[in-house]
Design brief:
alpha/beta, Rossmann fold, Immunoglobulin-like, eight-stranded parallel beta sheet, six-stranded mixed beta sheet, 24 helices, disordered N terminus, binds beta-D-glucopyranose
Amino acid sequence: MKLSLLGLAMGLVSQVALATSTPPLQDKAAFIDHLLGQMSVDEKIGQLRLISIGPDMPREKIREEIAAGRIGGTFNSRTAPENRPMQDAAMRSRLKIPMFFAYDTLHGERTIFPISLGLAATWDMDAITQVGRTSAIEAAADSLDMTFAPMVDIARDPRWGRTSEGFGEDTYLTSKIGQTLVRALQGKSAAEPDSIMAIVKHFALYGAVEGGRDYNTVDMSLPKMYNDYLPPYRASLDAGAGGVMVALNSINGVPATADTWLMNDLLRKQWGFKGVAISDHGAIQELIRHGVARDGREAAKLAIKAGIDMSMNDTLYGQELPGLLKSGEVTQAELDQAVREVLGAKYDMGLFKDPYVRIGKPETDLKDYYGEDRLHRDAARDVARRSLVLLENRQQTLPLKKAGTIALVGPLADAPIDMLGSWAADGRPEHSVTVREGLRRATDGKARLLYARGSNITGDKAIFDYLNFLNFAAPEIVDDPRPPAVLIDEAVKAARQSDVVVAVVGESRGMSHESSSRTTLEIPAVQRELIKALKATGKPLVLVLMNGRPLSIGWEREQADAILETWFSGTEGGNAIADVLFGDYNPSGKLAITFPRSVGQIPMYYNHLSIGRPFTPGKPGNYTSQYFEEPNGPLYPFGYGLSYSDFELSDFTLSKTALKRGEPLQAEVTVKNTGKVEGETVVQLYVQDVSASMSRPVKELKNFQKVALKPGEARTLSFRLDEDDLKFYNGQLQHVAEPGQFNVQIGLDSQNVQQQSFELL
Ligand code: BGC
């Protein structure tokens, strides 16, 4: 995109350089130091302000503020015609310091890909690269310079609505995806015209809010923090992400926004992070309600001392920093350090070289920013179908034949907004291919498709109102006013005339969102009534689930003949779902998060620590660790997902049984497609440190490979394990590999594994 802009950028003489006769642009540190030396205190403080541009904001006032050097960047405004006047205003400011324009581009900008939890289920780094690159290209063409992504918060409590925004429960998988996305978003460099800067969030541990209730406190031991929760942030930063967004929560009693240990000692000193730290929305002000700042003045002081460079949508830096500097409570050096990071980010985004690098010239403006021609539909369809997870398939109910009559029912079968999922950037519902549309296209001229809504999302008026309040731009969910029994009757009638029933049920997208925590993981009651009535028809029943978190679907599993987990699968979701339902694509997705049987089992994650009285299946249960009211263990384990093929693992060997330090270990296994169709599966490798100075997880993912195999084809895969893969943070937070026995487990999910052992000498 915008290749012509590249030439433009290269030919452009820096306007800043001309205005201030700065040192050469190539020398970042000297350039920024020189600029800093020319800035007034007010101009410096202005750079620390990141403001949200809402539809009703007084644009002229904002431009005046920018021209006066009082705003450093904005978020939420996108498209060149919207942002250019603001950049023009910056070019009228005394020092002509460019603005940057940011947005939450999480799983696509115009073309919407599956939600992050769905992306994780692909276990496919090529697909994730495709998502990151496409998102960056579209966002940059929207004149955006920066995205608040990826979100790499480990989530082990699915009550938390933002589980949908992350990559699940596993440290290794999340780290790998975070890294891959950062590289894809930033491309060759964040300065390229078709790259955007990645801001990793939410630093730190936001996914561990107590009780899964959004914005709640986090309390965590240091080994757990270092071993399980921090590595994905670090991996994403090490991959070159330009910045972090700081979490809203407190950690062990200290709000992250005021946490000097987190921000200075860990992030900057230990990790050597050099980049911009941005607060979350209004977080500095919230330090007062957290109970650590008595007023706005103290809040601003705490935040800047903790190393929050930019304040997001908050007036406190503007209001309070002048007084704090005057009194000496905040030093000039502290202010300069924050400004240096903001200018550094702008430098890295290529904005000093060309403030219009992504905005372009008026003549390059698109005719229609919302046009169909902006979309990358093929990529969206390909990634979406890779994200779908086949949970059940009794008597090979799936794939369906494109023949006979199919009843399509459920409140999510024809739900364009829900296809997009939460944080869908500038994705448009009118571009969504719904399940109904996808099935219509696939069956056109071949099978008869009957449709009935069957039920509303929820029968609970309070929940309905809550979900519609969340997104005030337009109603998120619209009820069919007819009584529930009438809706069900209509669906049952359709089912009776059909050979098979496909019911699209689950959550509306707003149910898996920021500030949408739940106390149950069940499908709402009205939808379960529908499932019951459909089951009673005796027709084969396929459940297509849409949801942004694991659901406890033990009862549904008994009713259904097949279950396909589809998350919120994006612009092309309906086509992708049809591809899988009819076997035009063989499902290969694997869960990146455990599905518990009930909310009472939470937290439930596969890589829990060893304990003294583990429950052993088949043994009497007394005085072992379990709940006696339901079977132990998950409904569906991490790493699980079926295919229309069968895969078998054999000949699992380790290259050594005793390993010297520094030596690599090879694990080999043969995987064979024993089914009748071509397909892909993910071979997963887990490691257990059997006896160490601390209890260690029963297993931890350390590697995986996704392989495509023809029927009858076998391939031997080789995995390499290094000493680093055996290391963990011990009680003294030393990163060590301790001698002793290790088990290596290989499987097609985290539960059914084969095991070999070796000794680390
Ligand atoms: C969210 C962030 C997001 C920000 C800006 C906040 O409410 O917590 O994840 O980046 O808004 O939209």
